[in-house]
Amino acid sequence: MIRVLIADDQPMVRAGLRALLDGESDIGVVGEAATGAEAVRLTGELGPDVVMMDIRMPELDGIEATRRITGSHRAKVVVVTTFDLDEYVYAALRAGASGFVVKDAEPQELRHAVRVAARGDALLSPGVTRRLIAEFAARPGREPPVARLAPLTAREREVLALVAEGLSNARIAERLHMSPATVKTHVNRIMAKLAAHDRAQLVIIGYETGLVRPGWI
């Protein structure tokens, strides 16, 4: 059973998300939070696997709440936003969120988001997430911190670049002519070397270091 905490300041949104998720045999809503501070507190008390987090929350915004949750707990955070291109979403990804969905997404997309996050993957495939990251990750006026990639081998940099483009392990395996198991090993080593907790963080690093740039996807 995937344990979910819903964090949103609007009661109707919380009720709608609960109704969509509670009917699934493998998903159960264990609590609701109306503020960011409450979301952090309930994460510690209830131990959810996934937190569905609104960005604009009272007392403590969703970004800071996400940072505190991912920094201290094993729960994965999926940002639920009104807009599909919201600069705050990028900030939330940098704070440790595993991805995001828009509030008007189809019910199956919301359920899929919970399942993907629970198994430790990130919501990075196609469309709006990559567009958002491309829009906000590589910004002018600063030198890319390429030194951050120093621990990686040449092959690991290749793999990281393809992860940042949003490719799955299977697609990377095809591109680099290796087995998916080998790709998975590379990805795990990259995450360890760069202190990244999931693929979403690798995408952020790929853009921020200039390894991948907007327009290449």
Automatic annotation (TrEMBL):
Query: Can you give the residue ranges of the Response regulatory domain?
Result: 3-118
All residue ranges annotated as the HTH luxR-type domain in the record: 145-210
Matches recorded under CDD domains: LuxR_C_like, REC_NarL-like
The highest taxon in the source lineage is: Bacteria
Q: Does the keyword Phosphoprotein apply?
A: yes
What biological-process terms (Gene Ontology) are attached? phosphorelay signal transduction system; regulation of DNA-templated transcription
Q: Name one GO molecular function term.
A: DNA binding
Q: Which Pfam families match?
A: GerE, Response_reg
Which key words are in the record?
Answer: DNA-binding, Phosphoprotein, Transcription, Transcription regulation
4-aspartylphosphate modification, residue list: 54
Q: What is this protein called?
A: DNA-binding NarL/FixJ family response regulator
